[in-house]
Amino acid sequence: MDRTAVPATDPDPYLPGQGSAAYRVARYELDLEYRVDNNRLTGRAVLHAVARQESASVVLDLAGLRVTEVLMPGRKVRKFKQRADRLVVVPDAALLPGDTFTVDIRYKGKPSPRRGFWGEVGWEELTDGVLVAGQPNGAPSWFPCNDHPGDKASYRITVTTDAGYRAICNGVLVAHEARSGQATWVYEQSEPMASYLATVQIGRYEQFQLNPDRAGGDVAQTAAVPGRLSVKAQAALARQPEMMRTFTSCFGPYPFADYTVVVTGDALEIPLEAQSLSIFGRNHLGHDWDSQRLIAHELSHQWFGNSLTAASWKDIWLHEGFACYAEWLWSEAAGIMTAADRAREAWRTLHREGQDLLIGNPGPERMFDDRVYLRGALALHALRVRCSDAAFFALLRDWTASHRHGSVSTQDFVAAAGAATGTDTAALLYPWLYEEALPPLPG
Fold this sequence. Notes:
It is a single chain. The chain has 443 residues and is an alpha+beta fold. The protein has helices at 230-236, 240-251, 289-300, 317-333, 339-351, 370-387, 389-402, 410-421, 425-434, and strands spanning 23-35, 40-51, 58-61, 66-71, 77-83, 86-91, 100-109, 114-116, 119-126, 129-133, 152-162, 166-169, 172-179, 182-194, 200-203, 205-209, 220-226, 258-263, 272-274, 277-280, 309-310, 407-408. It has nine helices and 22 strands. The strands form six sheets. Strands 4-7-2-1-11-14-13 form a seven-stranded mixed sheet, with no helix packed on it. Strands 16-17-18-20-19 form a five-stranded mixed sheet, with helices on one face. α5 packs across α6.
C-alpha cells in the first residue's frame, strides 16, 4: 500500500541554506513559457501547502530568477523580497500549525545552472534545447520550491515553447496543443515527488515505443531522441524491457504509470534520472557493459531514489548503493557476470583505494563518491549472502511496497532487514556504512 510522504522536519545538514521545516507542499502547479532562441523563461508557480509550525513568513528557494508578483488567495501579502537565493513572502497574519494556504508566484528571467560541490546543476541550455538536472539542489534554478528531499508533492507542469520542439516532463502527458508558432504540453505527476526530481526536457525529439507489443503487461516504455539518433538509440535500448522485467521480479511492481528515456543530441558527462524518466547523452548509446549498466542503473532509480526517497542526503547510499547493486543483478540475469563476481571485482577496486569515507554519512562534498556506490552495493550483497536469496528479495519487495512513494532512512532499512531476515543486520551493515576499514569480501 502507499505510504504518505514524510515531510521534512529539519533543514538538511548537507544543504543547510535550503528547504523549510515550517510547512510542507502538497502540490505544485507550474505554468512555464520558454523561448529557446534567447533562453527566456516566464513562469507561474502555484503552491498548495500546509503549515507545520507557527510562522510569520513563507520562505521558498529560488535562484537567479526575478519575482514580479506574489498572491496568497484568501490572505493579503504584506510584502515579499528576494535575498540569497530565497524568496520570503510575508502574509498579513501569521500561519498557525495545520493552516492550509496557497502561494501564487509569477516570475521571469534567464535560468542558468547553480554551481556547487557537484559541478553545475539545474536548468541548462543544450546546443538546441534544454536539460534540467536537479540533483541535489538544482530545482530552484527554474521554479520556487521547498527544496528538501523529504518534502514530496504532486505536480502539474505545463510548458509552452517554440513549434518544432517537444517538451518532456515528469508523469503522464494529459494535454497537447499546437498553435501559431508555439506548442503547449501538460504533464500530471500524481505520485509524490521530491523537488530535485522535477524536470523539463526540451528538444527536437521524436518518440517511439521500446516495447510496442507490451507483452505480459509490460510497463509502457518510450524513448525521445533526435531523429538522427533514432536507429542507434533503438539498438542501445533494446534490452531495457528485459531490465524492467528483471527489476519488477526483484523489487516489486514498477511504481509509476510509464517510463521515458530522453537522449540528448549533446554528449553528457553522466546520465541522470528524474521521476518516471531518465536522460542520457548521445555518447551513452553503446552496447558495451559500461553503457548498458548505466541504462539499468537509471531505471532502478525509479524504485530507489524516486518512489523511495532518502529523507536526508546523508542517506544517499539508499539510492546509489541500491542502483549499483541493480546493475549487478541485471548482469547476473543477462548471463554476463554473476553478482558475486561483480562484488569480487568491486571489493578489489575498493581494496586498492583509500578508505576514509563513511558511506552512511559521506558529507556533502563526497556524497557522489564512487565508494558510496560500490560499498553500498557490497553491503547489500553481504546481506544477500547472509540471509539467502529468497529472504533477500522478499525483503526488497516488502521494502518498496511498504514505503512506496514515501521517504526513508538507513535506520528504516536496517530495521526492516532485521525483521524480514531474522538476522542481526545492524551488526552486519554497520561496518560497511559507518567504519572506514573495508570489511572482508562477502561470502
